[in-house]
Specification:
The chain is mainly α. The protein folds into 2 domains: about 70 residues; about 30 residues, no CATH class. The chain is about 50% helix and about 0% strand. It is built from 3 helices and no strands. Helix 1 packs antiparallel against helix 3. The longest helix has about 40 residues. It is rod-shaped. The chain starts with 12 loop residues before the first helix and ends in a 44-residue tail after the last helix.
Length: about 130
């Protein structure tokens, strides 16, 4: 059973984890208060009303504080992600620039099979780029 206070933040796993822990503390506060009022397992006999309400208030405050922390963590993560997306990337040309080839080391044209010199850039028979 997931508590209804639990919030899942996409791309912010730490905030999701803190939110889940916060919801558990809130659930403990509710169960502690209701358990005292319904006298579950003789809780009323072992603890006084003040102690039980103080513990419930502490769990509740801790839970809601952790929820605020989870929200801040998620906002911070989303700001970092949006900053990464908006930073300009290095300019890239539309067409890739090819480095001039120094020549084919095999000595033969891949298209027509004619013999080529070691420093040739184009085949002298068919004109294909080597």
């Amino acid at each position: 059973m997931l508590p209804f206070f639990y919030t899942s933040y996409k791309k912010a796993p730490l905030a999701t984890c803190v939110s889940f822990i916060a919801s558990m503390f809130i659930l403990l506060a509710v169960l502690f208060s209701v358990g005292f009022l319904l006298n579950w397992q003789d809780l009323r006999q072992e603890l006084s009303l003040g102690t039980s309400l103080l513990a419930a208030a502490a769990f509740g405050a801790l839970g809601f504080g952790l929820r605020q922390l989870a929200k801040r963590l998620a906002e911070r993560k989303y700001q970092k992600l949006s900053a990464k997306e908006t930073t300009p990337k290095p300019a890239q040309s539309a067409t890739p620039v090819e480095k001039p080839s120094v020549g084919v080391k095999t000595g033969f044209c891949p298209k027509c099979g004619a013999k080529t010199e070691l420093g040739d850039v184009f085949c002298i028979h068919c004109g294909v780029k080597l």
